[in-house]
Specification:
The protein is an alpha+beta fold. Among the domains are: 48 residues, no CATH class; 101 residues, Tetrahydropterin Synthase, Chain A (2-Layer Sandwich); 42 residues. Helix content is 54%, strand content 20%. It has eleven helices and ten strands. The strands form four sheets. A three-stranded antiparallel beta sheet has the order 3-2-5. A three-stranded antiparallel beta sheet has the order 6-7-8. Strands 1-4 form a two-stranded antiparallel ribbon. 10% of the residues are buried.
């Protein structure tokens, strides 16, 4: 009977130990509530003993928690609609305040992060969201850390993950970037042309001082062209020589044209310079004979004298008198 009693007491002790003993992990802290009132001393990692029925142990995770903030849609200060999502890293530094001050601290941190993210979107411009993310992350972290300190929570860092833009805004930004790249390319090309023109001006000045350098450059160009396997050889022809030949040709042509115009009179001058046949004939019988012969000589060809006189028609020899 004594053995049964000992066995009963041993079983009761084991049951009491099982009820009163708790294991706290390395990354946890234990809070003891005795009759609903929290004790000031927290239980560290290891084996923790509590009073059965009177005490209740609650474990708090002290690790860094990674929480994704859902994408928040908002309008920036320059009236652009965007969607921004972020991620928050926080951990509990005061487990008593984290359990007593707020009902559900992960949910509370999530809601504060969403509202703070919306506020940051409204206060910032689109260029700041795309380029100055470090400054926005610091501002968002500061906005989250103010209420979290009262809850015994420390915000390690806040990162903005993505900024979703409308399709129209993406196309506009792509056109803007393309125009900017084209502008830079043109500026660089213009600067290169300017530098090249300066170098060419210096080279031309030196070649003008030494004419032999220009000949050497010409020969080098010919060698470069002839090095390639082609059957065409291009030689530069000076423009000054063409102008010289043109001027000389025009000077020789002008006097010859003027002389030709002087030597060849017009029909009016010929008619004015050449006296008529009637004027040459002074006697009246000759005039009468000429007037009688004119109707018969209209269909005959006209022969022009070699000395450029008036035309004289060929007439038949006068008939011999019968008597």
């Amino acid at each position: 009977m004594l053995l049964d009693l000992i066995a009963i007491l041993g079983g009761a002790a084991l049951a009491a130990a099982a009820v009163s003993l708790r294991v706290v992990k390395q990354y946890e802290r234990g809070l003891v509530f005795r009759f609903g009132r929290i004790l000031d001393q927290t239980r560290g990692p290891g084996l923790a003993m509590i009073v059965p029925i009177a005490d209740r142990l609650r474990k708090v995770n002290m690790q860094i928690v990674t929480m994704a903030v859902p994408a928040q849609e908002g309008i920036t200060r320059d009236n652009v609609t965007v969607k921004v999502d972020a991620v928050v890293y926080f951990r509990v530094v005061d487990p008593i305040r984290a359990i007593v001050s707020v009902e559900d601290y992960p949910f509370a941190v999530s809601q504060v992060a969403q509202t703070s993210l919306r506020s940051i979107i409204g206060k910032s411009e689109l260029d700041d969201l795309l380029t100055n993310r470090e400054r926005l992350n610091q501002g968002l972290e500061l906005m989250l850390d103010n209420p979290a300190v009262e809850w015994g929570i420390h915000i390690d860092r806040v990162e903005i993950k993505d900024v979703a833009l409308p399709e129209t805004m993406k196309r506009s930004m792509s056109r803007q970037a393309e125009a900017e790249r084209e502008r830079r390319a043109r500026v660089i090309s213009a600067e290169g042309e300017l530098q090249a023109s300066d170098r060419l001006a210096q080279a031309a000045a030196r070649m003008a001082d030494t004419p032999g350098a220009l000949q050497l450059r010409l020969l080098e160009t010919i060698v470069q062209v002839a090095s390639e396997r082609n059957s065409t050889l291009v030689l530069p022809f000076p423009v000054e020589l063409l102008r010289f030949l043109e001027n000389n040709t025009s000077r020789k042509t002008a006097p010859s044209a003027a002389q030709t115009a002087v030597d060849t009179p017009g029909p009016e001058s010929e008619s004015a310079a050449s006296p008529g046949i009637k004027e040459r004939l002074t006697s009246a019988p000759e005039v009468a004979a000429l007037e009688a012969q004119e109707p018969e000589q209209q269909d005959r060809p006209t022969v022009r004298a070699a000395n450029r006189l008036s035309p004289v028609r060929q007439s038949r020899p006068p008939a011999k008198d019968a008597g």
